[in-house]
Amino acid sequence: MNKINTKKVKTMKFLKTIVCTMAIITMATFTSSAQSKVDGKTEKFILLFRGGDTHPQTANDSKEAKEYLQSWINWMQGLGQKGILVGGENLQRTGKQVNGKSKVVTDGPFTVAKEMVNGYLIVSAKDINEAVEIAKGCPIFQENGKVEVRPLQKLEN
């Protein structure tokens, strides 16, 4: 890989880490207002972010990286201001998996980088179609990432 492409990859990896950090800060700011607006007429959905390494080794503050970061900040703030952002976190790259009846422990990561879940948000929406529309606004698509949208199971008492 040439120097320019290497620098761009490192920049985007750094940016994704910053974005996830900003998402957590933004989420903390707006979570209480979102929870108060969940009124029983909406459901909760998880948006699983897939694609790319979010834990870079180096930093870069290019104009492109700053613009990408700002697009995430704007999107997250918009969700919070609408009262539909319930929660979310960035996920670390490593972990452990417990498997089967014998409970064998395997070290992660567990999938190829482009399929790895590297963060999530929980949003409230009237139905899955509205949740999908929310997901379509995610800046991860600028980097050819993916968002998986799934309803959260309601537990009955």
Note the topology.
Layout: H1 3-37, E1 43-50, H2 63-81, E2 85-90, E3 96-99, E4 104-107, E5 117-125, H3 128-136, E6 146-151
Antiparallel strand pairs: 1-5, 1-6, 2-5, 3-4
Helix pairs in contact: 1-2
Structure description:
This protein has 3 helices and 6 strands. It is an alpha+beta fold and 157 residues long. It has a single domain (3-151), classed as 2-Layer Sandwich (Alpha-Beta Plaits), CATH 3.30.70.1060. Helix 1 (3-37) packs parallel to helix 2 (63-81). The protein is flat. 25% of the residues are buried. Residues 28-36 and 53-59 have low confidence and may be disordered.
Give structural attributes:
157 residues; alpha+beta; 40% helix; Alpha-Beta Plaits; 4-stranded antiparallel β-sheet; two-stranded antiparallel ribbon; 3 helices; 6 strands
